[in-house]
Design a protein that fits this description.
Helices cover 48% and strands 22% of the residues. The chain is an alpha+beta fold and 279 residues long. The chain has 3 domains: 42 residues, Orthogonal Bundle (Helicase, Ruva Protein, domain 3); 171 residues, Elongation factor Ts, dimerisation domain (Tetrahydropterin Synthase, Chain A); 41 residues, GTP Cyclohydrolase I, Chain A, domain 1 (Orthogonal Bundle). The strands form 4 sheets. Strands 1-2-5 form a 3-stranded antiparallel sheet. Strands 6-7-10 form a 3-stranded antiparallel sheet, covered by helices on one side. The protein has a two-stranded antiparallel sheet with strand order 3-4. 37% of the residues are buried. About 2% of the residues have low confidence.
Amino acid sequence: MANYTAADIKALRERTGAGMMDVKKALDEANGDADKAMEIIRVKGLKGATKREGRSAAEGLVTAKVVDGTVGVMVEVNCETDFVAKSDKFIALAEKVLDVAIASGAADAEALQAAEVDGKPMPEFVIEEAAALGEKVVVRRVARVEGALVDAYLHRTSKDLPAQVGVLVAVDKAGDEAGTAAHDVAVHSAAMAPTYVTRDEVPAETVENERRVAEETAKAEGKPEAAMTKIVEGRLTGYFKEVVLVDQAFAKDTKKSVGKVLEEAGVAATGYARFRVGS
């Protein structure tokens, strides 16, 4: 019988993220040698990489860092199960991907895929790391936000999992008051999920479509023609309050808009990104 204990199984599962039976089989084959067993798991995982390609990777994490207070970088890395998502090995993989995103200056997933990790192309690195985990792993997206001051906020939707929501907010001035405002807005954004920073960022075709829907709805409700313009513009304003950051009611004080909170701090939002795992 192989010379290993339950503690050895647990330790190897934590290192690899592999299932219990896979770990036990590898330890049996390696006669209890943990390093050899890890290599066996890795090789078998590489052989199974093709089979995993069609599987869904909807779990994972979001991680972010701010460099020199002025550049925020955020990545989302996905896997198949929450068991792997919270493993030390997967978290370390995601942090490595983030470090490469920062060093390479990548601002989108395509640029990040073209970067190298320890001399290997990013896709090759991910496949090799995923092999030991035994699951499909996807570097889904990256965001890069720059400004006079950038705040990063990571939110855990479950205390047992790494962050599932991440936000970057940039403002046009630095300082303590600016930093507090940027952080408050980042926390707000994690919960309220705005799509745009200002109304100017909303595509014209989107605005026109919302205006058309508002008008058709008002007509269907039998609203008077004389009041139609005011009704439509009012409903369009309501749409902006849902999707535009500065127009949203501030979560900590709904009597104020986010724009008012920033104005009182003497700053304006110049950049924003929000990721939620799987969405």
